[in-house]
Sequence to fold (185 residues):
Amino acid sequence: MSVLAANSHIFCREVHHREHQQQFCSAAGGSFGLPKSSGFGFLHRNRDSKKILRRDLKAEAFWPESRPTFVEMESINDSDHLDHILSQAQQLSQPIVIDWMAAWCRKCIYLKPKLEKLAAEYETKVKFYYVDVNKVPQTLVKRGNISKMPTIQVWKDGEFKEEVIGGHKAWLVIDEVREMIQKFV
Fold:
């Protein structure tokens, strides 16, 4: 039987040192329990000093309520669609994030999955959308006042509030977007 642990050496050491107790180990938001009789392939000596190899490890997983690791961003197709999204967000008193990108832009393509991970962090508080500037009418692009890509904007109460132009490292852009979102959540 295989058991995944954050660090197998620590896991083995803990099992070895506390094999006669019920154990619970936590790692990355989840935990697993080890029954009293667990061993992990260690040599043990019984009362007669005979070596015994024990391999009867059982692991049970206890995972907390699961949250998504990413939330797929919805596309905005035209100005009417944007108006509809803005009115819904205004009714919910919720900001929205719009990623203005292009299919040919390498930084845009690289940044999109990272923004989808960020969207999972704010799943109930902020909605994330994207606009492919080559697939929408230019009136929509002009409405967003887009000159460089990727541009990530926050809109709240039906109007543009702030933007980050993402021409640098993705992790820096994500940090800047996170800070920007915090101002309006």
About this structure: Residues 84 and 171 are 31 Å apart (CA to CA). The chain is about 30% helix and 25% strand.
